[in-house]
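Give me the fold.
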Amino acid sequence: MRLFYQQPAQKWEQALPLGNGRLGAMVYGGTSKELIMLNEDTLWSGFPRDVQNPTALSHLPRVRELLAADRFHEAQLLIESTMLGPWNESYQPLGSLHLNWLNEPEVSVYERELVLETAVAASSYGTPGRLIHTECFVSQPDQLLMYTMRGPDLRVELALDSLLPHRVSAQASELLLTGQAPTHVEPSYIDTADSGVFFDEAQPGMRFAVQLRVRQEGGTLEVRDGRLVVLGATLLELRLAAATSFAGVAVKPNLGPEPLELCRQVHTRAEAFSGPTLRERHLADHAQAFGRVELELEDEDQWATGQTLPTDQRLQRFAKGKPDNALAVLLFQYGRYLLVASSRVGTQPANLQGIWSHELRPAWSANWTTNINAQMNYWPVETCGLGELSEPLFRMIRELSQTGAETARKQFGCRGWTANHNVDLWRASVPVGGYAGYAYWPLGGAWLCRHLWEHFLFTEDLSWLRTEGFPLMAEAALFLLDWLVETPEGYLGTAPSISPENNYLVADGTMCSVSRSSTMDVSIIRDLFQACLTAHQLLGGPEPVQGLVAGIRSSLPRLRPQLVGRHGQLQEWFRDFDEHDPHHRHLSHLYGAYPAAELTPEDTPELIHAVRTSLERRGDEGTGWSLAWKVNLWARLGDGDHAWKLIGRQLRPAESEGSENGSGAYPNLLGAHPPFQIDGNFGVTAGIAEMLLQSHRGEVHLLPALPAAWKGGRVSGLKARGNLQVGMTWSGGRLTSAWLECPHAKDVTVRCGHQTWAVSLGAGERRTLSLDSKE
């Protein structure tokens, strides 16, 4: 399980990612010039402020009147001119560490790698007998980046810089960079006269610091013009700490802690450990999370491809139709690796780019986009044995429930809390500026609540559900009860409503996005309402919000049912409109099939047939995250071959001529939207797990969507709902062994193909299934 290459990275999309959830690094592995680009997960533009639109609510009745009269385009124009808000803030790059050789080494051999099991990036280059070895990791237990270089006669200049306003100083064996983030950054995809980067002395932005301490063996260490110069060393050890003045989403960053003092504290604590000890502590911490799941797939050419071909060449080879199941395993484990590296207890959640970004105005602000992308980042958490890594997401939901309560009251006239499609560090929950087809969508909070419910289903932690999960779910459901209106068709529905980012055509050919009661809206509402009823039944006692249960029970039967359109597809809008783009990347109307489980082949076969038709009409192309959603949907349909076909499309080299619009995988296996978005990596990891194990119908379903290409293999450590850990082997496309384990006693129904088992588990007992050889 490693990515490796025979040349240094020439650009960001070829560098190798490291991280501890908070501090991120992209390592280029250069020979004459080494570059390590840095990020810190709280370094954002802006500050906490009131961004509510005070007049939006007054226009809502008129919008609803227009929608009831089928004047959809007028309603949309009114929303866009009167009911949207400002753009949210942007994730910012921290800076860069440079190591420049003063005597460029002769290089005849070269290799760099990222080992997933150790989370260590390394390079080796030079000539036989005169090699230089480098190694880099970012430690979670010690909160610093560690870089070592070994070789004869090391002559290297060390420097720090940043794209943000900053100062650099050098003294003795230390480099220090301090700076400040902008007070506002307009998104780079908005081409307006006032877009850009803004600084306001009256509202200071986030302060940050990077402190590098250097130790060498042999030679000398000098200070020259704000840089450090190492001459004639045989070992170079760099310890880098970074921090910001972030003190919470409601605290202005100029009032937060001193970043340099935080860096000094990190270094002081790390002084107690030698370099090798820091490495051992890092390895142990990473292994306890990453090492929980093992996956192997039989591959006739596995040894040759996995051990001798560099990763970029494997991508090219696979794109030409050469089999490489081990590449799918690498992609699966890479997603788990990236999640461990970008989301830890106490950090920010993984954003659109995880924690890795190198631009002042990153695409889509590198924020949390809650109409699919933020949720997809956390799809693999439970199934892939990393449940505790949801903590940052749950904390963000709690914080959003505070800002979202203001948005619910001031902009929607509702109780409870809501969030629209864009969220930043300051937990902005308002509809942002621009286009109603993405901006005006107050269902983001309700969708986020699905992760709370899934966490309970996987852990069965009633105490957590009572104190953490259900109260947040209940307040989001309260918003929905108030947001629902009676539609002209006689249902309870939403108005205005969109199917995120997609458009339809009205009779005169006008393109619109705003209508009423989209399928996605109704699916999310039904999903959350049913979860709240089940949670209340399990917990007993008083409901978190008085009248909630009665309100849900009276509203649920009045929600519009799922409809089948004239093409046999699952209808996306309340009316069977023509789609403006039949191949649109969003699959919002299929929410009920995945990530929810309202629609299943066993329980709703006619609607599942409509889901299949919708997928076929959408086609097999798409951006990275769209392909990943399709992988999960085809897995839920039990079609492993189609899911595998789409994984193959995700593994196309993003920079090759055969890639549709530049989508696919970059040389470092990061997913291309394009540009880079990490949700495709996380989504396909969840999809591969879904092909091997499903548990959304109250049973454990083994190998539900096994493709013909995966004839044999083994997996261990996957999680099923009910707090179950599962392992299995298969050969010739048939299950050969399987085991289950649960920390508490439990009766479980297990299925594989047409065979079922009734399994009684004792607390902590591992039970192996007795397989029917005829099955």
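The radius of gyration is 26 Å.
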